[in-house]
Amino acid sequence: xxxxxxxxxxxxxxxxxxxxxxxxxxxxxxxxxxxxxxxxxxxxxxxxxxxxxxxxxxxxxxxxxxxxxxxxxxxxxxxxxxxxxxxxxxxxxxxxxxxxxxxxxxxxxxxxxxxxxxxxxxxxxxxxxxxxxxxxxxxxxxxxxxxxxxxxxxxxxxxxxxxxxxxxxxxxxxxxxxxxxxxxxxxxxxxxxxxxxxxxxxxxxxxxxxxxxxxxxxxxxxxxxxxxxxxxxxxxxxxxxxxxxxxxxxxxxxxxxxxxxxxxxxxxxxxxxxxxxxxxxxxxxxxxxxxxxxxxxxxxxxxxxxxxxxxxxxxxxxxxxxxxxxxxxxxxxxxxxxxxxxxxxxxxxxxxxxxxxxxxxxxxxxxxxxxxxxxxxxxxxxxxxxxxxxxxxxxxxxxxxxxxxxxxxxxxxxxxxxxxxxxxxxxxxxxxxxxxxxxxxxxxxxxxxxxxxxxxxxxxxxxxxxxxxxxxxxxxxxxxxxxxxxxxxxxxxxxxxxxxxxxxxxxxxxxxxxxxxxxxxxxxxxxx
Length: 528
What we know:
DUF3747 domain-containing protein, Cell_Envelope_Struct_Comp, 15 strands, 5-stranded mixed β-sheet, disordered C terminus, DUF3747, SLH_dom, 15% helix, 7 helices, single chain
């Protein structure tokens, strides 16, 4: 008898595409704040606890797509048993099933929480309970979504009744109904703190990021992320400073040989140039996709805002002051005195040659706006205030998620701002100096871009944004390899295993995303 049940379970699991507990790592779940939801007929769906092995259960959602043949039958009460009839015929275009986080997700308060919560089934006394577990706070109580109202016989499929306040909906994009099923509640628990982006929940710069997002100065990607650890390119920085600072033009426009009028960042580059924030290279190029080192980002702000240094010895504050190029010393001193320098995780480490991240740009720009009196001060232990006590620092900088390159000579740059105590660059060019620039690079949580299978997916992949994001490089002026701004994960339906295991080993609990959080509908991206 036991062997018969095990064989049946193995065969059912194979047909339904269930090979394990099926909860893929949350980072691979496509989460899009721009996605909407639409109501569905609950009578055409069955939320099921599907048996796996002797005591394990997985969430399975069945859908009756057409009325050609019934996809399941129900019998009994408390609990209600499910007979998956779709196993008896080719259910293509008749039935649909969702077996993992690529087919279903949690949605609360009109926001998607697939990166924050993992769905699973646990036994509670004489019940099987559907729970959403917080991946970023294991101490937080799980959210109960539904239960079976009784234990089923061994090897039986059993219906899960959703609790009051929960229902099924489907994901939509631009009015089109997609295949992914939401377990939906109109409210979210009070202990969930919503941030502007899904991946900034635990990021050190989240307050700066949220504040600038509220001002429409920065924005995220279509998948609801900000990717705070992604490096920023010159064109991305140009887009940010041209939008953040309404300073008057200091010089007429110029034409860069590598910037075509049709280029998405052409106008932002011209505005950053006119306002004195950024310049070009001696060969009359702008190099828009080149990553901008921290030293150049700070020099850019100090130059464009016409900061000047008092001449005080402030650079000795930095433990790596010897790595600051001669041409940048005056500007870095001015930026330090005006308190726009933010160093994480060690406040005395400037890391001048390391590529600037999106989180760091948000912090620099916010501090510059504070200096201009446009925004209130945000208390932070990472703002450089010379003479202030040094706060306790994290043990390492590995949280940055970006490689720290060995210091090397910076490119020859001419900073056309006499008030910043300029030191002529070794190679001065007729074209005003190059001060790298970034645009809101979509966030620093690395994007996940699996290659979709030709077989139809439960939910289509949203069209990627047209603006490339360079790949971080350890060199201060790397040649980035553009990658699509956004390609939400769309893992295809699992392929039935030719030799299914009778007792599939449950998948390990997914490792939470480095900085997950809740999702808010982002503003239109500023060409991130």
